[in-house]
Amino acid sequence: MSAPAASPAATQTRLRVENINTYYGDSHVLRDVSLRIGAGETVALLGRNGVGKTTTLKSIVGWQPPRTGSVTLDGKELVGCGMMAIARMGVSLVPEERRIFTNLTVAENLRLAQVTAQKPGWTLDHVYEKFPRLRERLTHKGDEISGGEKQMLAIARALVQDVKVLLLDEPTEGLAPLIVREVENVIREIKAAGITTLLVEQNLFSALAVADRCYIIDQGEIKFEGTPDQVRNDEDLRRRYLFV
To answer: In terms of domains, do 69 and 106 share one?
Structure first.
């Protein structure tokens, strides 16, 4: 594995994953996976399909708890706490499926997330300021908006709660290039707000455009830790672990 790269954003470690091993039944999916994310940092977890990226996110939030290893938020152990307790601590996963309520309007989706939050996060006015497209779609139901708008709504639902760490699973999947740029800008806004972000993304160049640091995972093992520039400039690295 390449040597860790220093990041100005990583003044303190907010989320630390240490030597986790996660299984599906008897299948050993994650093998001693370790990573760290500094407070306010945006980190990308890269790799081909099926190599353990989403399982890493599920392990962090308790959806698929690791059998061994440690996950800590500001030094507090998360393994064994359960999904609801981890969410109340401020770790939120926006899954690949987005999981908005398609029978509710955009405004109702946001209000429901707001009233069920343990602690308040962004105000609705702040959400509408950062997501002007959602303001235009407030009365539209979830099944009446575009894929890009669904993604923005899923992220906004997380932000109206008290989020310390936001986990994003394939936020640009299936989106048109223009909408991808909008989602990238949203991720930059999240970083500017001081929210720590772990991004799983198949769109390599989109991920590199927003990340402070990168990890590459292959066959359930971390193979690289470094900067976006290192990934951009290392064709052999990309060929070995990222290109199909």
So the answer is: no
pLDDT at residue 3 greater than cutoff 50:
no
Task: Look at the chain and report how many structural domains it folds into.
Answer: 2
Residues 59, 150, 39: CA angle, nearest 5 degrees? 45
The predicted pLDDT at position 11 comes to 60
Same domain, yes or no, for 70 and 112? no
What helix, strand, coil percent values describe the chain, rounded to 5? 35, 25, 35
**Average pLDDT of the chain, as a whole number:** 91
**Bridge-based pairing state of the strands 42-46 and 213-218:** parallel
Question: Which amino acid is residue 117, in one-letter code?
Answer: A
pLDDT digits (tens, 9 = 90+) for 196-238: 999 999 899 999 999 999 999 999 999 999 999 999 999 999 9
Question: Is 180 among the domain residues?
Answer: no
Domain boundaries, position 107:
98-163
Comparing CA positions, the residue from 140, 162, 164 lying closest to residue 152 is 140
Angle 147-159/106-115 helices, nearest 10 degrees? 20
Q: What is the pTM of this model?
A: 0.90
Is 120 among the domain residues? yes
In a domain, 74, yes or no: yes
Alpha-helix residue ranges (DSSP H) falling in 44-176: 53-61, 83-88, 106-115, 124-130, 132-135, 147-159
Out of 143, 163, 183, a domain closes at 163
CA distance 174 to 57: 20
